[in-house]
Design brief:
The structure is a homodimer of 200-residue chains. By secondary structure, chain A is mainly α. In chain A, 72% of the residues lie in helices and 0% in strands. The relative contact order of chain A is 0.11. Chain A binds a DNA duplex (30 and 30 nucleotides) through helix 3.
Chain lengths: 200, 200
DNA sequence: TGAGATATTGACCGTACGGTCTAGAACGCT
DNA sequence: AGCGTTCTAGACCGTACGGTCAATATCTCA
């Protein structure tokens, strides 16, 4: 019924996500968003409620694409054992920095920028983080080394890895030297307890 | 020579810092700042150049007070060996969350919020991080366990700890459950290599 | 083909933003 | 006391912000 929408909502949301990702909520003006989304003002307000709703929808889109991609990586048996999957995730973060992509992680950015002042976003970020933590836990369990571990230790290791991952994405965005970031990642992987004994 | 300033610049800066810390750069309006700083518009623009300058000055103030406090903790031999000092720092972060202080760390917030778009702030944040990293390195060296370590491993451990610390402050701000944050901290301290062998 | 429904467009709106400026007040110096 | 200097107060300014709306276009269905 009625005139069909001329633009693809998901594509527009991808573009809005890109703007919010780089500029944050307050830093992204309506004009920025409209230009990136390539739609007119009225269309935007027809399709979404207001700026907050666009942000939330963009975060949701990030969840279903990027975060889900990370979750899939951590659960992908084809990549290898748990450590290999975790390494793949960290190396993807490193690769982004190597190609001068310093946007960091939109979820982490939202955690600092909007979560404290917007309950809906706080809830959304919280659930995304817990899902990622769960995926880390799956990877932790997919390792010969953890067979003898207590459930508690496995959970704690998953949380440790989530925490390290967040740190890496924040450092990346802050402009931390790329080379030094490599050593952060190496140390994180070496110290999470999933490797064999170290040499020195 | 002229009428003396009626307010204390550092006190006003402390208050501005509080606003930026909670709300971020764009989220803090001039009105917010003036109300918190308890000075008139004209006085603010006489004492500082513009909003950017206030932010930078507030970040500087954060550096000289809070960050320096963390650095001092990590170098304070009275607290104990390196691990004890590092634990003290993480427990302070945990204590903040316990008393419902979810502001996180202003330096970390600035890293995400302003560092990517403002070169001066990026440089400032970078130098603060490197100073904190150096302090972590001092603490790492102040441990019997690290005597046999290579210089490289010590540096990497310092970076690992800086990274974990950043993660903790971000998770704290995002609303991550307080109890779960405890286990993140425990795992970070247990896995940084400064403890004796684990039980399981 | 006409009625109803929905989308597009961009002009338009009120407001709150960051920043300036003018009076007047409070000092040091001679 | 008079002068130069600096600070305070807050009215004022232009602008850009997020959001609305009326006119028009494009669809479905009877």
């Amino acid at each position: 019924m009625g005139r069909p929408r001329e633009f693809d909502t998901d594509k527009a949301l991808d573009r809005a996500m890109g703007v919010f990702w780089v500029k944050g909520y307050e830093g992204a003006s309506l004009q920025d968003l409209l230009k990136a989304m390539k739609i007119a003002r009225g269309s935007l307000y027809k399709a979404f409620k207001d700026k907050h709703s666009i942000y939330l929808a963009a975060l949701d889109r990030y969840d279903h694409t990027i975060v889900q991609g990370a979750v899939d990586t951590l659960r992908d048996e084809a990549i290898g054992d748990g450590l290999a999957r975790i390494r793949a995730l960290f190396e993807a973060a490193q690769a982004a920095v190597a190609r001068a992509d310093r946007r960091g992680c939109f979820m982490c950015n939202a955690a600092i920028d909007q979560a404290p002042i917007n309950p809906k976003i706080r809830a959304k970020v919280g659930s995304m983080m817990k899902r990622l933590e769960g995926a880390f836990a799956s990877a932790v369990e997919a390792s010969r080394k953890t067979a003898s571990w207590s459930a508690k230790r496995r959970v704690e290791t998953a949380r440790l890895l989530l925490n390290s991952y967040m740190g890496v994405r924040v450092l990346a965005r802050s402009g931390y030297p790329a080379d030094d970031l490599v050593s952060v990642i190496n140390a994180s992987l070496r110290n999470c307890g999933l490797e064999g004994p170290r040499s020195a």
